[in-house]
Automatic annotation (TrEMBL):
<protein>
    <submittedName>
        <fullName>Glycosyltransferase</fullName>
    </submittedName>
</protein>
<dbReference type="InterPro" id="IPR029044">
    <property type="entry name" value="Nucleotide-diphossugar_trans"/>
</dbReference>
<feature type="domain" description="Glycosyltransferase 2-like">
    <location>
        <begin position="7"/>
        <end position="132"/>
    </location>
</feature>
<dbReference type="InterPro" id="IPR001173">
    <property type="entry name" value="Glyco_trans_2-like"/>
</dbReference>
<dbReference type="Pfam" id="PF00535">
    <property type="entry name" value="Glycos_transf_2"/>
</dbReference>
Amino acid sequence: MNKPLVSVKTITYNHEKYIAQCIEGILNQKTNFDFEYIIGEDCSTDNTMQIVQEYANKYPNIIRIISSEENVGATKNDQRTDEACIGKYVAFCEGDDFWTDPYKLQKQVDFMEANPEYGLVHTNFSCIKGEKVLKGFRDGQNLPTGNILSELIRGNHIATASVCMRNDLLQSIRIGDPIRKNNWRMGDYPLWIEAAARTKIHYMADDTITYRIHNTSATHGLDVKGDFNFFNDRYAIKRHYIKKFACKDLEPFINKMYHRELLKFAIFLKDEKLRETCLKYFKASTMGESFPYLMLSQYTIFDPLYCFVYTTRKKLKMVV
C-alpha cells in the first residue's frame, strides 16, 4: 500500500459488544485513495483485543494495533494513536460508535482538498440507545461554519466520530498536554476549541455516523456525581479558553449558562445551599428568579456532546 492519505483512529477499551461494528464501518469506506486504520487497544478485560486482532490478521495492510502490556488510560491511549497516524488527514471513531455512510471519508477529504483554509470537517449524526434510534440529530439546525471559536466555546456541537481533520493541525495541538495538566475528563472538546483557534471548521449536514449511548460508556455510564464532575470540567474548559484566547465578551453568557445548569444539579443533589447560591446569582444578574424554574421542564440528564441542547429537548427524550 502507498502512503495513506488518511489515518483513521479508534481508541477502545472493553468494547467487546460494539468493536466489530465500529471496525466494519471503517473498512466499508469507498474511497479513491488509500487509508490506514490505527486501533489503540488499552488492555481490555473482555474479548475486545481478540476481536481487534482477528480483523488485523485479515486486513494486515490496513489495520495497525497500538497496545502495551498494561492499561495506560484514555489520555495516553489517545495520544499514542495520534502519534502513530501518518496520513495527511486523521478521522476519529471511538470503539463504541460506528460509521454508517460509506462515502464519509471521501466527502470530507474532497472538501478539505478543495478548501485548504479549512482544517476540520464534521457532520450530522444519529444516536442509538438500546433499540431506540434518533436519525439526523442535527437535522434542520444551521450550525456555524468558518471561524467558529466563539460559538464553540459557547457550546460543543461537534460529534467526535464525525470528525476528519488535518494531521499537521492535530499534531501541533498535542491536546494530551493540557488535558493532563488540567486533569480534564474529556479530550475531544478542548481539541475542537484549539483547532478552531487555528483554522476554519466546516459542518456537513450529511448524517454519516451513529453515536451510541450505553451504561458502560466512559461518559454515559455515570451517576449524578459523575455527571456533575463532567459538568464542572466542561465549564473549566470554557473558562480556560476564554482566558487563553481573550474572549472576555463570552464571560457573561458562560456564567449565566453555568449557574442555570448548576441549579439543576443542585435540585438533583438536593443541595439547598447550592440552590440558593444560584438563585442569588440570577437575581443579581437581573435574570429574575423565575427564569431557572422555567428551564427545569426542558432538562434531560442525557447530553451526547456535554452541551445541554435545549432546542432539541423533544428529540432527546426519544432516546432517553
